[in-house]
UniProtKB/TrEMBL annotation:
InterPro entries: KFase/CYL, KFase_sf
Name the record gives this protein: Kynurenine formamidase
GO MF terms held by the record: arylformamidase activity
Entry-linked Gene3D superfamilies: Putative cyclase
BP-aspect Gene Ontology terms: L-tryptophan catabolic process to kynurenine
Length: 209
């Protein structure tokens, strides 16, 4: 089993404008008899899942998402050697089967830059490519970047891939890690914190064959 999640740590990178991550002792073992950590962070911290409510008015929140939607066989599409802010188009997806698994993982190699300024210049999926995957059966788009849409450090309200995937009542998983070496087909489990919100941090794993 391989962990595909970034660890949550105090002060870690978050999407521009999101709440910062703060971990601090609330109770101490020697003083209070038990150790308890105070945790403050946004619902889209680290490796996390976006529910439709993230960008769709009236969309499903995480309490309406079943775990069976987030566990299953996945197609891993590896797109290597991309330039900063590159666009991944339909042709870059390779020879897709007529029907893809419900979970599609896009590996750009950009997880290596998580926590650095270059992470903001990640590649993005084109709206046409997102539509092609949805039309072929994708329900969960999982990426190793801050977003499948371009990230603007100054903030943006334009999220075409989110609109397509979440607008189809699908899910988006962002900031996957440790994708290198995964086979093109792999069984994946994405386990969100049980929050009834617009998204939730997850522990994502790839199961051994």
């Amino acid at each position: 089993m391989r962990d595909l999640s970034h660890p949550i740590a105090d002060g870690m990178m978050v999407y521009p404008g999101d709440p910062g991550v703060h971990l601090a002792p609330a109770l101490e073992l020697e003083r209070d008899g038990a150790a308890v950590t105070s945790v403050r962070m946004g619902s889209h911290t680290g490796t996390h899942v976006d529910a439709p409510a993230h960008t769709v008015a009236g969309g499903r929140t995480m309490d309406a998402v079943g775990l069976d939607e987030l566990v299953g066989d996945a197609l891993v599409i590896r797109v290597a050697g991309l330039e900063d802010r590159a666009t991944v188009g339909v042709a870059d997806l390779g020879d897709l089967p007529e029907r893809v698994p419900a979970i599609v993982v896009l590996d750009t190699g950009w997880a290596a830059h998580f926590g650095s300024e270059r992470a903001l210049r990640h590649p993005a999926l084109s709206a046409e490519a997102a539509r092609e995957l949805v039309d072929r059966g994708m329900r969960v788009l999982a990426v190793d970047t801050l977003s499948p849409d371009p990230t603007d450090a100054a903030g943006t309200t334009d999220f075409p891939v989110h609109e397509i995937v979440l607008g189809a009542d699908g899910l988006i998983v962002e900031n996957l890690a440790n994708l290198d070496g995964l086979p093109p087909r792999v069984r994946i489990g994405i386990f969100p914190v049980r929050l009834g919100t617009d998204g939730a941090p997850v522990r994502a794993v790839a199961f051994d064959a």
